[in-house]
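Justification of computing resources. Each target in the renewal requires a structure prediction run like the one illustrated here; the chain below, 119 residues long, is used simply to show the kind of job we budget for.
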Amino acid sequence: QVPLVQAGGGLVQAGGSLRLSCSASGRILSTYNMGWFRQAPNKGREFVASIRWSDGRTDYGASVVGRFTVSRDIAKDTMYLQMDRLKAEDTAVYYCAAALSLTDPYKSWGQGTQVTVAT
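Resulting structure tokens:
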């Protein structure tokens, strides 16, 4: 497991943008699959996006396709989530996570960061 530290988030008006980052306190190996999840009050955890560290292949949850972009900086062992055209329903605590491979469960989690979208 690799410790993950998140940054970013905060309060933004609907239609605005925010960027989250997730830095590893160690090397993210090429086999890793990195992901973003979120949890809104009184709701279950929702998949947001993922990126395969080896080749940058991405995947998105249906509710964020076309608005959010996940990316990585291999040299910095850091993953980003660019969130554009934010909506009130995007309000949640966002978590980043790491899995050892595509077939492994996510085992390392960031501390979470609050994103609040005001209308």
